[in-house]
Design brief:
- With 268 residues, the chain is of the alpha+beta class.
- It is built from 5 helices and 11 strands.
- Helices cover 26% and strands 28% of the residues.
- Strands 1-2-8-11-10-9-7 form a 7-stranded mixed β-barrel. Strands 3-4 form a two-stranded antiparallel sheet.
- Helix 3 runs parallel beside helix 5.
- The mean pLDDT is 86.
């Protein structure tokens, strides 16, 4: 099934404009969710909002307003019109501010990914931009207003297609330095074994198709079993063997197991 456009925009840099279609880069599967039921009769229960100040009075939606807590238990309220006025006006333009080395963009900033395809009359400029980005090793950084918000976006080439990455803003990011890591040394012998372990499991290609969400499959299988009237039984826990506390012993054992698995794969 061909990709379906979710919207349109215009890439703007200098005096050049490139009309494009926006496509989702992936199709997320529906999340498996469970409803809350009344244990006694199996009826789905309904959620209600109550006011704890007014003796847990049930508050209907028409009596609710949105508020922002600026201090403990203190709020400023906004009407729907006030909130609407605060929204960023959608311009449909991806305004490019600068071109940065793609290798310098930290992957931690990535939030969402979209594909861009040329709209009517924009194929020539689209191909030109994609090729220019590819040959310069740079990516276009800019902003895009959509759905009432302004997004930081990065345009990069991939196999002739321009990929639009929605990035986090810098003030949304937490510095890695906040992660507590005790000081210590790395022993040369342990480092050598760790490198061998990495090389033992190294591949030259990225093949995500080799991996599947086995947890989702197991949950769906269990749900179907319940629907068919089967009882779910818990499998006995697998014996993980004795714990290896010594790091050197753990590395050596990992290398040995990797070698055994490699030999089995070659024999099969």
């Amino acid at each position: 099934m061909p990709a379906r456009s979710t919207g349109t925009a215009t890439i703007s840099f200098g005096l050049v404009s490139v009309p494009v279609h926006i496509y989702s880069s992936a199709e997320s599967r529906a999340q498996i969710s469970f409803n809350m039921l009344h244990r006694k009769c199996g009826t789905r229960v309904k959620q209600q909002y109550v006011c704890p100040k007014d003796n847990n009075e049930i508050v209907p939606r028409e009596d609710m307003v949105k508020g922002y807590e600026f201090a403990k238990d203190q709020y400023v309220t906004f009407t729907p019109d006030e909130l609407k006025a605060l929204e960023e006006k959608a311009t449909g333009t991806i305004d490019i501010a600068e071109f940065v080395p793609l290798a310098e963009v930290d992957r931690e900033y990535l939030e969402k990914v979209y594909y861009l395809g040329p709209d009517k009359g924009g194929d020539r400029a689209y191909r030109l931009l994609a090729k220019a980005l590819q040959e310069t090793g740079r990516a276009a950084l800019g902003q895009f207003a959509s759905r009432g918000q302004q997004y930081l976006v990065l345009l990069r080439p991939r196999d002739g297609v321009i990929v639009m990455e929605q990035l986090h803003y810098a003030d949304e990011m937490k510095p890695p330095a906040e992660v507590p890591i005790p000081e210590g040394d790395v022993k040369d012998t342990e480092l050598k074994l760790a490198k061998q372990l990495i090389e033992q499991g190294a591949t030259d290609t990225f093949e995500p198709a080799k991996y599947k969400d086995t947890v989702r499959d197991r949950v769906l299988e269990a749900i179907q079993g319940k629907v068919d009237g089967h009882e779910i039984t818990t499998e006995p826990a697998q014996d993980g063997g004795g714990k290896i506390i010594d790091l050197m012993e753990a590395l050596k054992a990992s290398l040995a197991r990797g070698a055994e698995e490699g030999a089995e794969r070659k024999a099969s």
